[in-house]
Amino acid sequence: MKLIEKHGLVPLVLASALTACGGGGGGSSAGSAGMFAMSAGSDIAASSTPSATEDPVVSKEEVALEKALDSSWTKVANENETFFLASSAVVKYGARTTFATKTLSGAVNCSNQTFGDPLHYVVKGCYTQGSVAAPAPAPAPAPAPAPAPAPAPAASAPAAGTLLAAEGKSFSVAAATLVKYGANNSWVQKTITGTAPCTNEYFAKDPLPFTVKACYSLGAAANAPAPAPAPAPAPAPPPIVSAPSPAPAPAPAPAPAPAPSGSAIAGDVVDSAGNISATSYKAMAAQLSKEAGITYRYGSPAAVNNSGIPTLANPPSNFFRCNSSGQNCISSWEIGGPYLSDPGLYSTNQAHVGFVADDVTKRVGVGDLQISAIDHNTFAQVPHLPWQNAAAWDGSGGRDTYNASVYKKNGQTSGSPVAVTRCGGRAGFCAGGLVVFQDGLIGTVGSNTANNQATAKLPANKVPTGIASTNNSEYALVTVWDTTAMKGQVAVISMAGLCNGCDPYNRNGDSTHPAYYDWWQEWDATYPGLPNTGNTAFMKILGYIDLPGMNAPTEIAVTTGFDQFKTVLGGGLGMARAFSPLTNQSNRNTFFGSGQNVDRYAKAGVAVVISKSEKKAVFINLKPLFDYVNNVYFSNGPTEFTNLGQADYQWPYTFGYKPQQMPTVISTVTLDDRPTAVKTTTYGNLHRAWIATESGSLRIYGLGNAASGAVTAADTVEKGRVVIGKNPTSLATSKGEPDDTNMEPLNHQVLVASRGDRKIQWVRFANDGNSGSVVRTLQDSRIIDPIAVEDADNFSNVGNLLSIADYAGKKVSNYRYGPVFLSDRQPGAACQPPGGCPVTPTGSVKMEFGGSYTTEGKPFHLKTSNVP
User: Fold this and answer.
1) Alpha carbons 408 and 267: distance in angstroms, whole number
2) What is the pLDDT of residues 729-757, one digit of tens each?
């Protein structure tokens, strides 16, 4: 990669004053760099929910704020659950001392959509006085037709029409109750006593695919017109599709000779025959963020045997940024110098680290580290806490990512991450990262210059296992285990980037949020699903994609095949800022037909999901999603995207509301070994997926034309294999190649962390993408347990630096594999072409140890990026 070309192509990611931002690409002597002004002191959390978007079926009344509740109030539902009011009653919604109040009846959704959001960023609930919210009042006049003799203790069935549960939830009925399951005009029914799940599996049918369903009581079972005759019983207004009714034998299908399955496998969720064990599946789902879950997903560490393994050279550190007495120095530099007062064309790389915390009461399990920094004529290659967060002054900044700490403090999560990610590709386009926690919270994690807070929450029965982001942070994809239906799915989350600290629902700002401003050429409106620079301020779960033949997905990768540089206009202007707002039809016209922006956004994409236990991979086509959403934004139709909100009918629409946008499964592929990691090419003419397997094989799969969506099952076949180290637990995009500066490594090379052999390998692929070979191997006696690897961005300045999450070693370590080049070209500048500042070799090994940071737990995920 050419330094000056990269520097000129992406002024988009340049930050403002070094002393205020501490990161970004390039600056002058004043630390200013680039044309995009940053509001001083705008380090404020963003992303609130809409203030009062009402559910259309709930009566609209003025919402009043209340003080703390006394003991006469009873909690009837958690946030986003639905409960039933048999008669009109006062309901309070909120938490702590802040509540909204409404008088309601019937089915009520306990959510911001019904009440507005009285307390941002805090999990809320609904409260009533007395027991008015019970499924039925209780007096007992309900079971009318039943004779009534004397069995007084007999419990009554919920009244006909009572909402029992939303799809995926469970409900209980004390007496035999005829229950219907479905939506609109399509239903199935079943007689139930006790507790039952409201799912397709339990009712043995999906009465209305792609639509969110629910369970309703039809009254006491005795009132239903008997099991068999069935033409049109009359219990409910909508036509009812009868369930498998006759005899309760063929329904759950337990009998068909369960072929004594296989014997249990310790620590796995399948037995020796490859069948899911329900008990093990549910038990492991609760452990995915803990050591047992890490062992399940990534195996065990290799034995440490350093015979024949070198101890690489380690340059000394020079410390600076100390307090007034010269103590508590919080930064160091190792390469270049002398240290100058002019920061020059500075740049910083930062990492989000997911770890199993030693003490979960002290640490959330997501930390920030500075991976590298170039400023003042020096290069820092020791990972340490970011000085911009005043890390060393108070001992806490960076050990916990600020956003994650807020989520835990507000009660949105109990902590314990399962996975962290961020978009990938060109430097500077992935300002923030994403974390998904064991309890289902998905949240943004950012840096000192990009720290918007946006969250979404999975239902309790959807346990996350992995997360990936599309190239321009349009969507996040989360693999989940559905512990109710016992199946694998992918949750699709729509995202929108925005100015830092800005409220996605209020462009004019308020006392806690600034008005929208020119932030790195971002959109001047909230447009979920469109390209953005990664400072996510809005999230919404659109729905779930079932994975045929896969119940236990473990990892996911995704590509749109779109080059982020295409969003940059001439002169470094950003497409988003230049063509906002999209309510202006002339702006919209530029994005379709022969418009000048028709090639400046993603049109499709492919996601690849693997299941380690089941030895399978599923390929998913995202084209239906991009087609539908792009058409809404860029057609001559109504501007539906202005009705932003979390309800199904608000933008962006859920799959239940607009099923035609749901991504489709291309194929399910069975492997002959356990897949342990997956990665895809980023953009370009050749689209490939790379799947690593446990015994030490990197399989190359075709993706057709992922960028256009022209992908069939015939494309998603194995093209070739490369022999790599044992138990490869991490694949990382290669972001630099010192031995071939004419190659674009993003699409032609991948880094492999082989936990089983304690080494990092660079695999380079042939021009046709169908074969490859190992071109470089890193081994060092300091590497104990390399579970994940990441390559640092080379933006403007070049560092050729990688980072390793050393799980058993409880540290993050850096290694440099090529020379450092600084962009400053003034006389006396360090690390200049053609040689730059080379590594200090150890024998014939042209790599050096860059230093380690000891973590307060065991790190297992690592995602790095240039800090804009």
Assistant:
1) 29
2) 999 999 999 999 889 999 999 999 999 99
